[in-house]
């Protein structure tokens, strides 16, 4: 542990520009090679990234993409480039497996909220286990900053960006479950993050696309939105970081969104609520901020407002320069920068226990396994997706399942169709040729039919039903949930249209919905009671197997 | 190097069962975790695999699936489990990136054949470079046995299983290019494999599905099929292994397929052609063998025929037992086993230079980078997909491109459609939301339409064209090539139907075909000369960018 601790210099030895650079967290691809970069507009090639880490000395990286194995290598590469040990962050609200294949993939937090309403004790246990498993799996692949839990209260069913990412719809359930999650994660030297301050649950606009407004009174905000943050901040929970929301809240600041608001970040969060940890902005590249305030002015405003960490500024070099200029101009005091860097150092010291672990083990196995060329962190990596972790994820899915109608589905003969509808066939990592939603109905004689808006939207060419042909009993599986950037939590016209047509033709044999409970509510009133219907919060393969086993009444496929 | 060499015991110290186990190569998933296994029927879970390696002592593993980063970890895990250093093989005929994402992905060998007919010297250089790059990238992730080159002469355009995997259609071009490939690969301590003996190019049946028959005379076989093998075997080429085909060749053996034929493997290949390296069967689980000869009898027959390596027997434990029983019964002599094990030891000694390399480097960097927790093999891994490798792959694609009609595509306005047709939308690793075939037309105003047989085959529901609506100028992109298990190298009815309809409606604006040159030949006669058409051998993202840049006449997307 000593050798790693030794790598963190006294922050006082850093120049102002180096101090400001430590406040910046840049986005990078989790893949190892430039030609694999998925979002070239946001993810720099290796040479640029290495320059940011090595020469500018930025303080952290947020990673997206790649498998867990690749990420373990990638995080080592980044740490080797950095002159000061990095915070390595990831949006792993639903498990490391949500972003990095191979690790455990949980259903969205609202599944635990559903369990909570039936058995609060059990749900709290799940939330704590989930926090612990996510923290330990993050650590195993070099992530030391978990950008979770979401503590927003999703009291707006048409919220396109939070939705099932929230633990629930009331401040009480969110507070309790999020705090249990933090408790579980705190057992490991990994940072946790309550987001999105002061509460992103009651919006119908996606801040990835535009700036939502929260028109409520201070009293109402204190009663609903703030409660889970207060609970997360309490020393008993002790969340390490709070992420700001790109939301306009006129009750507190008529002019600036929370991310750039001194009344909200400093007066409310830091002073009134007494939060002493890291205040991190949500991504500064997001439309609501970058388009309105300017690429390099937004970071200055965020620091002025009270942020310690500038997440994903449009131009890291420009952002550092702009903040340094603001200090030179007297807009920002040096003490303000120092206060942030001190908080960052506190956080980095805490996670150093984690980065030290692999080294300790390396020595232990150096004489043995490594002789055969085995990687020192392979043993850590292989702690991912352990049976107890997979079982916890599966149990949450199972207990949050909603089942209606006549179950199991009665066996039928003939021309069976398995109609799967997804948001985007080229972008659904929960579905491949081996996914239970594909394989299990096939075992029961169903022929696959895959549709997404891109497979059907030929203006001028339309589907129609040839009357007189055989009726095809159809299992309809909808994978639809509110996703950031899609701008809607609602039902696609495609899914709605198919549902109506199948119902009208008496072809709908069973319905499975993976994702949003709000969609289930749209379908249920129209569903005859004899047609079985299963709803699952999870979309991942394990969730498909669980839902279909219920529907077919037999565990034909092991998870 | 000494330490690793020390791990290979004298083979004489092994029991008979241990010797036979060294002749077995089992299939395993390249992914790290059991829940990621893609082919549960063929890929054992970790506990079973570890038992095979640790307790039975099988001699090698063939891997499929996972990223290059994951495979680097996986191969270390397997070597750590094995009691004797493993041969780790992979079907990487088109580059490590063909199977393991992140590494360099070449077009199929027939692309080099196309270059050969224009410029033999350049093509030979490409083949040698490709061999060298594949070998070095294999080595970087722990693969020491390249199951390439294919030296079959593809003189049957409807060959469903070889097709563009061959270097060409004549024995001369195949001989020269395959030998150049071997020459390139031999610069590295990696085994190469000429396949599929005595020649799989002239079949219209996929041996994954059934047993093809090669009805030719010995004279014709010697003239066409055998030539490239003779060339590969010559000391100047020095291929390390020859893989047998599951083919019936009545001219030499009226009863048994090549894989199980003593006249073919021993009399012809070993004695007449004088091949002294490893004779490896093609996968024994394949239908043509497993279904006809029995799971445990087939391995015995293969050893009797002269095979040194039993690839993917249905049941490794049963196969080892059956071969040992055959020795006990006198069907197979102990000397026969010893001869194979000696050849395997020769091969393992050769590849040990490779497995030793990372250790040497480990020591060199131990005091520096590793302090920061960096993996000792990370520097090796990062040698994948280097600029010169990506450029070689791109150059081959570019020079093998076939272009017809009026290029570039003239700009047009309005209701533009990018219609992509694939074999299986859930199983195409060359296409995702960031693929040039999707992104580049979008930049030109085209709306994506994705189709595969599963998106359209609703009997009772059909597409039709609403006359009276706007005509939609359509860019048609077909990703179709002969693939093993698909059982056909031909055009799907879907693609054919779409092509005719678009042509009939005067909507076809341009055609791009990725994959099979034989398909191009089916389309060209029907294509008016003013409609531009581009054919590319490669299907991977880099090939899409190259084809579309030619079509659109501007390099809007960098590769």
Give a written overview of the molecule.
The structure is a homodimer of 559-residue chains. The longest helix of chain A is centred in the middle third of the chain and has 33 residues, at 334-366. The first copy, chain A, has helices spanning 2-5, 16-22, 46-56, 68-81, 96-99, 110-116, 120-140, 171-185, 218-223, 226-233, 262-272, 287-293, 297-305, 316-328, 334-366, 378-381, 387-400, 436-443, 453-456, 493-504, 517-523, 541-552; strands at residues 24-29, 60-64, 87-90, 145-146, 193-197, 241-244, 278-280, 310-311, 402-404, 417-422, 447-451, 461-465, 474-480, 508-515, 533-536. In chain A, α7 (120-140) packs across α8. Chain A contains 22 helices and 15 strands. With 559 residues, chain A is α/β, with parallel strands linked by helices. At the A-B interface, α4, α15, β11, α19 and β12 of A face α4, α15, β11, α19 and β12 of B.
- pLDDT < 50 runs, ≥5 residues of chain A: 1-6, 356-374, 457-464, 484-489
Please outline the major beta sheet of chain A. Answer: 6 strands, mixed
Strand order of the largest sheet of chain A: 9-15-14-13-10-11
What is the C-alpha radius of gyration of chain A, as a whole number of Å? 24 Å
Q: What's the end-to-end separation of chain A, in Å? A: 39 Å
Q: Structural class, judged by helices and strands of chain A?
A: alpha/beta
Give a quick precis of the structure.
Chain A is an alpha/beta fold and about 550 residues long. Helix content of chain A is about 40%, strand content about 10%. Strand 12 of chain A pairs antiparallel with strand 12 of chain B.
